């Protein structure tokens, strides 16, 4: 089992920044990659960023490139999502996830473990 705990969400204004954190515990040796997804009310869960467990390869969808940065501190088993230039459309619940295998990294179905989520609300 892997446990994931997110933190760092909140209410901010458009243009502000937030840093989300995700701490992994348990059988972390089985993790292949970590991802961040988001889900707004009435919408499907959406890929935001991912990083391999060694922390040297990152993945982003086009709509966050240049604004969001995913990183990992190995010693702390912690993954961060730095979000800059936030927009109202970034408002969503943000979820950290752990992938154990090598399936498509952009697909939520590839991830076996999920955190409880942290809410990000961006006002205009």
- Report the span from N to C terminus: 40 Å
Largest sheet: 7 strands, mixed
Return residue spans where pLDDT drops below 50 for at least 5 consecutive residues.
Answer: none
Radius of gyration of CA atoms, rounded to a whole number: 13 Å
**Roughly what fraction of the amino acids lie in strands?**
over 45%
User: If you average the pLDDT, what whole number results?
Assistant: 95
Q: Structural class, judged by helices and strands? A: mainly beta
Give the number of DSSP strands.
11
Q: Report the order of strands and helices.
A: EEEEEEEEEEE
C-alpha geometry: globular
- Kindly state the percentage of residues in helix: under 10%
- Quickly count the helices: 0
What does the model show?
The protein has about 120 residues and is mainly β. It contains no helices and 11 strands. The strands form 2 sheets. Strands 2, 4, 5, 6, 9, 10 and 11 form a 7-stranded mixed beta sheet that branches. A hairpin with a 6-residue loop joins strand 4 and strand 5. The radius of gyration is 13 Å and the shape is globular. The termini are far apart. The relative contact order is 0.31. The model has no long low-confidence stretch (mean pLDDT about 95).
Provide a compact summary of the structure.
Helix content is 0%, strand content 51%. The chain is an all-beta fold and 124 residues long. Strands 2, 4, 5, 6, 9, 10 and 11 form a seven-stranded mixed beta sheet that branches. A four-stranded antiparallel beta sheet has the order 1-3-8-7, with no helix packed on it.
